[in-house]
Design goal:
Helix content: over 70%
Radius of gyration: 22 Å
Largest sheet: none
Number of helices: 12
Number of domains: 2
Structural class: mainly alpha
Distance between the termini: 47 Å
Number of strands: 0
Mean pLDDT: 80
Shape: globular
Order of helices and strands: HHHHHHHHHHHH
Length: 283
């Protein structure tokens, strides 16, 4: 009798018990991902090695590539091009590195499932691991580049500000935002095969609508609203605040980035979860 009453209430309200089921499903899928953690680690190292197959220097490129970028920008925007900001490379490089991480992650995520058909058809595992592993590779590169940048700031004047202690929080928020967008890109790319080709084009356009090379306050007022619609604008602003302007992150900006990241993560996970079986079939 009690069981029937509970079922009847559930049918009428369709909220408390279903919410519990969704929570249980999420926890169950998280445990499933944890169970396949060794596969995720193996995929991470495989993707990392494949990037340097046939290369003489191999993993040295992981450090050499960002070093060349940092040195080039430092020379160009210190000795050749003047942007009107003191120590301009300190402004440019953090934003560029952050943008490059998210942009590269979206490109690799959009191809992560399409390029792993052989694996999906032979092994049963949570296919989001493919996307997570591809993001992890770009995150590794980002960490290496960021550490090299911080070392350069420590060696060269001005010294590293105390506000850099907020850097892990900002990186975490960006990773959450990137993860949500990447899951969405990985899923949609299976249905629309042009997405991996479209992302670099759109990325180049959005790059110039993000205050990486220029501060937001020099943009004419009517266009500032358009630029602020770009979620990466707020992420880049946080990097500039703590590493260049040497001020603690604004609580409103932090809250906005956190809210945007959670929304993208929920949408990305929800879409991916609803289509996970279809993804395997289409591949």
């Amino acid at each position: 009798m009690i069981t029937k009453d509970v079922k009847l209430i559930n049918q009428e309200l369709d909220f408390p018990i279903n919410t519990g089921r969704k929570t249980f499903k999420f926890l169950s899928q998280f445990r499933e991902l944890w169970r396949f953690r060794e596969l995720a680690i193996e995929l991470f190292w495989t993707y990392l090695k494949l990037r340097y197959v046939g290369s003489v220097l191999g993993f040295i490129w992981t450090m050499l590539n960002p070093i060349l970028y940092i040195v080039t920008y430092w020379i160009v925007f210190t000795c050749i091009v003047r942007m009107g900001l003191p120590d301009y490379p300190l402004y440019l490089i953090p934003g560029f590195l952050a943008w490059n991480f998210t942009f590269a992650s979206l490109i690799s995520a959009s191809e992560s499932i399409l390029n792993s058909q052989y694996l999906i058809t032979k092994i049963s595992f949570p296919i989001e691991i493919l996307t997570l592993a591809s993001i992890a590779v770009n995150l590794f590169d980002f960490f290496v580049a960021l550490i090299l940048y911080l070392m350069a700031v420590v060696i060269l004047p001005p010294t590293l500000p105390i506000t850099a202690l907020a850097l892990p929080l900002v990186v975490m928020l960006q990773v959450l935002l990137t993860l949500g967008m990447a899951l969405l890109a990985a899923c949609v790319s299976v249905f629309f095969r042009d997405i991996p080709k479209l992302i670099p084009v759109l990325g180049t356009m959005v790059f110039f609508l993000t205050p990486i090379f220029y501060p937001l306050n020099i943009v004419p007022e009517p266009f500032q609203f358009l630029i602020k619609l770009n979620p990466m604008t707020h992420v880049i602003t946080l990097y500039h605040d703590i590493l260049y302007y040497r001020i603690w992150p604004d609580y409103l900006t932090l809250g906005s980035v956190f809210l945007i990241a959670i929304i993208f993560l929920i949408i990305g996970y929800w879409v991916f979860d609803r289509k996970r079986h279809t993804l395997a079939e289409l591949c």
